[in-house]
Amino acid sequence: MKNVRLRATRLTAVTTALVAMSMLTAHAADLRVQCYSDGNECEVTGEIAKRFEAANPGTKIIIDKVPYKAVVETLPVQLTAGEGPDIARVTDLGGLNKYYLDLTPHLSAARQKAWQDNFASTLSWFRAGPTDKGIYGLMSQLTVTGLYVNKTLFEQAKVTMPPATATWDDWMAAAKKVADATKTPFAAAMDRSGHRFAPLAVAYGAKVFDDKGAPVVDAGYQTAVKKFVDWHKAGLMPKEVWGGVGGSQYRDAFEEFANGRIVMYYSGSWQVKRMDTQVTKAFDWAVTPAPCGPAACTAMPGGAAFVGLKRTKQPALVAKFLDFLATDANYKELMARTENIPAHLAVAKAGVTYNVSPGAKAALNSFVADVAKIAKPNYQLQGYRFNRAIFLPTAQRLGQAVAGEMSADDAIKRLTADIAEQVAAASK
Fold first, then answer.
1. Would you call 220 exposed, middle or buried from its count of C-beta atoms within 10 A (0-12, 13-18, 19+)?
2. Distances (CA, A) of 74 to 38, 78, 319, 324
3. What is the pLDDT of residues 256-308, one digit of tens each?
4. Which of 16, 26, 336, 374 has a C-alpha 20 to 30 A away from that of 382?
5. Which helix (H) or strand (E) holds 286?
6. Which pLDDT tens digit goes with each residue over 4-47?
7. Distance (Å, rounded) from C-alpha 315 to C-alpha 307?
8. Contact at 8 Å (CB) between 247 and 400?
9. What string of DSSP letters covers 349-391?
């Protein structure tokens, strides 16, 4: 009886081991994708992933949807500890480079060329520097900044909208006329963001970087700072958006626009869906061509991307899945269904059929047209590994100047010092 019990125990142990091995095998091809969403990006990616699973039996793509804060704050901590997902959707494209998986060794020569041809303008954003030739990530969302205008207010004021070549000053003057005529509280507002401020700076001559590639608050940048602060002092822009009490408690500029409190709003392509669903019923709106300055008529590029991470135990599968998303048909579907701007040049050239309202379609096409006009310093800034060391101090110091806590000149001095200090710290 004892031997029978022993054999039974051994059999149970063997069975348990086999079940455990079976479970490990079943999950050996799992890939975890950490995904934040501006709209439906995670859901659409998950649906496309189902086709990848069908074509690769035994593979499971697990989409873990997280808040944006988790991508900005939690993910870097995880990666530092050698933990985290296999793939993540990120916006700090160059800043996390040391954690990225180079897809190149896992792609055929033909597919490497396809990536290099189709994503030529954005591949450098993921790289550590000019000598880095790696392929690290797929732009899931190319964003373009732009000016949203309340057309209804312009019509009520009987003011003609400025032409495609209009300057920032032209637009501010026209918006002031409209605000005065219609008793609208403010002429304009801009998202509280150093990223959003950059096109204004470059339009007025900012080079952003010196000859050695170091960031610099040059004359063009300073001109834009002073102009921006003066617009607030003149009451053309609501101080509460950039400079609340004590430099905090900021108001949502989108809500100001949606409620008809401002004539025009500088934000970006990611707001089109929100505009179409929340604003269209209240008034007519449109996106204008990028406002000009003496140096350029430019928008600011940006966006989010899926990147493979070194800590994965299945690098070849990570590359295979990202390459699947990068194929013309799948990428076009991703852009169309998420209502985003394509970074894939062949898809952009062929055009994306957006299933949206006429107003939203016109807005998206306006953003697509602005991509070709983006100035070189803006591409350089977006691809700069330490761009947050420029964006964040810009928002902070301009917010303080707008709130009246310091002058524009003092803000420029503090901003210059902040950028130098933060770049030095990030470079260690």
1. buried
2. 18, 6, 24, 27
3. 999 999 999 999 998 998 999 999 999 999 999 999 999 999 999 999 999 99
4. 336
5. strand 285-288
6. 344 444 433 433 343 333 333 335 589 999 999 878 999 999 99
7. 11
8. yes
9. HH-----S-HHHHHHHHHHHHHHTT--HHHHHHHH-TTTHHHH
Beta bridge partners of 143: 302
Beta-carbon count within 10 A of 4 CB: 8
User: Which helix or strand (DSSP H or E) is residue 42 part of?
Assistant: helix 41-55
CA atoms within 13 A on the CB side of 178: 27
Cα–Cα distance measured from residue 111 to residue 20, given in angstroms and rounded to the nearest whole number: 37
Record the tokens describing residue 3, joined without a space.
């031997």
Q: How far is CA 268 from CA 142, 209, 406, 426, in A?
A: 10, 24, 29, 28
Residues 332-367: tens digit of each pLDDT: 999 999 989 999 989 988 888 888 999 999 999 999
Q: Which two tokens stand for residue 186?
A: 């403010």
With 0.85 as the threshold, say if the pTM is over it.
Answer: no
CA neighbor of 338 nearest in space, from 31, 36, 30: 36
B/e letters for 232-246, b = 16+ CB within 10 Å, e = fewer, are beeebbbbbbbbbee
**Angle formed by the axes of helices 376-383 and 194-203, nearest 10°:** 150
Using a 10 angstrom Cβ sphere, with 0-12 exposed, 13-18 middle and 19 or more buried, the burial of residue 78 is middle
- Domains of the chain (ranges, CATH numbers): 28-142+302-350 (3.40.190.10), 144-301+369-427 (3.40.190.10)
φ/ψ (deg, to 5) at 221:
-65, -40
- In 81-194, the DSSP E strands lie at 87-90, 137-150, 186-190
The pLDDT tens digits of the residues spanning 219-269 come to 999 999 999 999 999 999 999 999 864 444 557 899 999 999 999 999 999
CB distance 337 to 331 below 8 Å: no
